[in-house]
Amino acid sequence: MKSFRLLGIRIDQISRDEIRSLIAQKLQSDTFCHIATVNPEFLVEAQKNKRFREILEQTDLNICDGAGIELLGKLLYGEKIERIPGVELAEMICGIAAQEEKSVFFLGGRGVAKASEQKMCSKYKNLQSVGAIDGNPETFEEVKKTQPNVILVAFGAPKQEYWLAEKGSQIPSLRLGIGVGGTFDFWAGKANRAPKILRNIGLEWFWRLATQPSRWRRILNAVVIFPFLSIQEKIRQK
């Protein structure tokens, strides 16, 4: 699998078809796979957070989840990357888990885990859910006793990545874990995704700013700090 580095972090170049096949393979394996959905905020945070940076070096797969990464990867490095939004990847995983008859646990999300479980189980009739709790980064034993094959962790970055790096391999049944950020909010109807036209042209951040102005610091990191640091890095490399 090809990959390249942006702000020192590995970004894997994988298509939707390839990741579908890979997920199915991982669910039938006997080892734990940690997937990270890397967006510009991840890359900015990793510049000052050594622990987070080290985890992103150890993940099995770092998916591009940000229009900024897709754009700057092409403009600065000539790399072609397919962006796969985390909310879409998480649903893809649920669909494949249903096909492969693997169980899923929904963890985190500030009161929307149960609604998210119901949404996915309604859409994918064969999906086997073994639990849905808000939980917190200290939650472990309650998850472990259900012996899930897949876990979706919605603590937000970097807490969800910390949890998966520390706990994922300690659950014998677990084959795949992914941090899903605000995905449960979308599934539960607590937040709405941007219209497709804005998503297609990379302006989902503008929709989020307009509908959730409290996110302005995060959006600043994504649309100002991240491009600045990326261009600065490229200049230093010359």
**SS content category:** alpha/beta
Would you report the number of β strands?
8
Residues in helix, %: 40-55%
Total of helices: 12
Q: Estimate the mean pLDDT confidence.
A: 94
Number of domains as seen in the coordinates: 1
Shape call: globular
Q: In which order are the strands of the major sheet placed?
A: 4-3-8-7-5-6
What does this structure look like?
The chain is of the alpha/beta class and 238 residues long. The chain has one domain. 50% of the residues lie in helices and 16% in strands. It contains 12 helices and 8 strands. It has helices at residues 16-27, 40-48, 50-58, 67-77, 86-100, 113-123, 141-144, 159-167, 183-187, 196-200, 204-211, 216-237; strands at 3-6, 9-12, 33-38, 61-64, 103-108, 128-133, 150-154, 176-179. Strands 4-3-8-7-5-6 form a 6-stranded parallel sheet, sandwiched between helices. The chain has a two-stranded antiparallel sheet with strand order 1-2. Helix 8 (159-167) links the parallel strand 7 (150-154) and strand 8 (176-179). Helix 1 crosses helix 5 (86-100), helix 2 (40-48) packs across helix 3 and helix 2 packs across helix 12 (216-237). The longest helix has 22 residues, at 216-237. It is globular and about 50 Å long. The mean pLDDT is 94.
